Amino acid sequence: MLLDLIKDLQRLASPEKAKVLQRFFKTGPGEYGEEDIFLGITVPEQRQIAKKYIGLNLNKIQELLKSKVHEHRLVALLILVEKFKKSDDREKANIFNFYMRNIKYVNNWDLVDLTAPNIVGEFLNDKKKDILYKLAESNSLWEKRVSIIATFAFIRNNEFDDALRISKILIKDYHDLIHKDVGWMLREIGKRNKEILEEFLNKHSKEMPRTMLRYAIEKFPDGLRRKYLMGEI
User: What is the value of pTM for the model shown?
Assistant: First the structure.
C-alpha cells in the first residue's frame, strides 16, 4: 500500500510547481525549510490521496514522515487527521501520542497548520493543556508553532484562555513565523469576542512585534488600527 501511495504522488508531481514551492517554503541554505524537497502537488490533491490510503498503518505512516519529501510528510499527516476524525476515544489517544512522538517531522508551517488544531487541539479540548505550554517554551520553531496553532481548536469553541496565555509566552519570540501565528490566533479570538482581544492588546500591544500586532488588528476599523500601530492605545 505504501509503494502504491508513493507512486500515486509521483504521478501527480509537477517540476514547475515544485520550483515555485521550493522558493515559497524557504528551502535555501540557512532558511527554515532548508533541504525540504517538493514534488509540486496541490493540497487538495494530497487530501484525496490521504482519503484513498486512510487504511495505512502507523508504521508505514512513520516511514512517510521520515521522508525528506514534503508531500510524503504532509500526506502522512493528513492520513492521521482522517483517521482521527473517524476514531473512538482510545484510538484518538493513540494517534495523538503517535503525533507527539513524531513531532520533529512536523517541520514546516503548512504541516503544522493543517494538523495541529485537528489532532493536538481536538484531543486536548477536554483535557489538561500542560503539553502545549511545554511546547511553547521549546527551542524548536515548529513545536512553538504547534503550541499556538493547536489552540485554534479551543478558539472555535469560544475558549480563549489558553490561546491568550500561550500568546503571552510567545510575544517576544524572535521568529517572524511565530509573530504571524500569534497574530493570527489573536485575530481569530477578536472575530468571536472583540472585547477580549482589545483587553489583551491594551496590556501588550506596545511590546508586540509589529507583524504580530498587524495580524491581530487586521479586522479592526481603520481609525482604531492606526491608533494601535502608532502606540496611542
Answer: 0.94
